Task: structure prediction
Amino acid sequence: MNQARSTGLIKRTGNTITLHKYALIAPTRRVNSALARGPPPMTFKFEIEDRIGRYPIEREIGRGATSRVYLGHDPNADNRPVAVKVFFFEEHQSAEDIKVIRKAFVAEAALAGRLSHPHIVEILDAVSEPNYSYLVMEYVEGSTLDDHADAATLLPVPKVVEIAFNCIRALDYAFQRGVVHRDIKPGNLLYSPAGEIKVSDFGASFQEALAHETTQLTGIGSPAYMSPEQIRLEPLNHQTDIYSLGVVIYKLLTGRLPYNASNPLSLTYEILNVQPQPPSTLRPDLPRMLDEICLKAMAKDPAQRYQSWIEFGKELSRAFGVLRSTDAKLSDSEKYADIRVLPFSIRLMMWCSGRGCGSVRGEKSARARRSSVKATTAMASM
Result:
């Protein structure tokens, strides 16, 4: 009979390692070490029935290069809807593929309880089984920005600016905690019917607390949104995310990528060597300031880009002012939802002074979690 063994942060039952939500706020190396001691990877065909762990599964809602996502429910939280992301190991995958997938799981699992922000998808639970691993995350109803990245389905320009600004707030919040996303693209930005945006999928992220694990993680990413330094496999910082967000803004404004490459090799060449056309050459109604913002964010040399998220955010606030002054006919549905409550300039000043005033509630929640961990650890040591 399997015997359960618990450190107060990590619970082992036979070959199963369960990482509790609050446990992962503790030093990340400790959690990562427990994962490393887990059973060796096995190849198998993973099939979902009606339950993953304690979570009843309703249906599949997404699929990526390293995982599948299912809509489930948490019976321990009033049966609220959750997204269950399963990292699977198919029979045809190589040992290197499995290594990449396991590292992606470790990178995201290590963020449980660490990133609590209105514009970041919250990770609630993380579990590693012998043959697969899974994360439980808050469920965001809606779709990704892929649905609004084609010329026929573009969002209003002011809404694109709002989305970009909120992404900046979220990514600055993560960066202040030692996290660089490294895979910003429309498919990783969730968009709700109410118009809210949330950054998801930190599986490719660099984390200072996991530097020995994540600096060598390759094989994950989206070439069309990669920065030149990411393609060259150089050390990365927040400016790789600034570049990728610049490409996202370009795509959301024009419905096209900034490069016209027909194959991966030519795409790589253009990212490294070709200056993209300003967005207004594809969409003449765009103000010149948005051209400048996109091109500066996508500069080949990181030293020529925005040097901080705050600087990037200030430029977007100026762009909104230009949009408001040059188009007085914008309908209410085309204006910032938040602008109707609080002027953009005031929100910007509060963010600059408080490093993200919109995340105050998240910060209080994170402090409560850290206090809970300290109390649990103290009790376990008595």
